[in-house]
Fold this sequence. Notes:
Elements: E1 4-7, H1 11-19, E2 24-26, H2 41-59, E3 68-77, E4 80-82, H3 88-98, E5 102-112, E6 120-130, H4 135-143, E7 164-168, H5 171-175, H6 179-188
Parallel strand pairs: 1-2, 1-3
Antiparallel strand pairs: 3-4, 3-5, 5-6, 6-7
Helix pairs in contact: 3-4
Amino acid sequence: MVKIILASASPRRREILTQLKIPFEVIEPDIDERILPGEPTEEAVTRLANNKVENIREKIPKSRARWILGVDTLVELEGKLLGKPADSEEAVSMIRNLAGKIHRVITGMALLSHENLPVDLRFCTSEVKFAPMSEKEVQFYVNSGEWEGVAGAYRIQERAAFFIEWINGSYSNIVGLPISVFYGMLKDNHYPF
């Protein structure tokens, strides 16, 4: 199989690609990840994913500008976007707000299969219902450190699973890379499996 360039610093995405046995290398993008005022979430995640691809395309020789994957995930609660918390206080606030409620996890994906083709942009949305949490449970979770570096301040594949009542949609999307959408992109762009 052909090696994919992963334009992402996410260890979860690396783990998923490793589990899928898809060869890849990581080149971390350097982009502004701010959300534009009034920007719909689906547009924000696909724009950011595309910006990651374009950033890497500019860094590497033109001959290597193939099979570049950019991915960005955001959490949306009651119309507000939750990115990566800056510190433990912000993580506590996010977890308190998520407790007992339903939120959406939206992942945007951008795939450049060939320099001469347009970037394929897609997104995936899942719903997650957190159980009500006591203040002690919120502190227990934040003290685990799992909130660091992840949108919405939680990792569903780790201790946050204690507090998840249900999900609707793709589990792998919530982890950070919706596998079925990713496969569809590879298939539609004629990835040589």
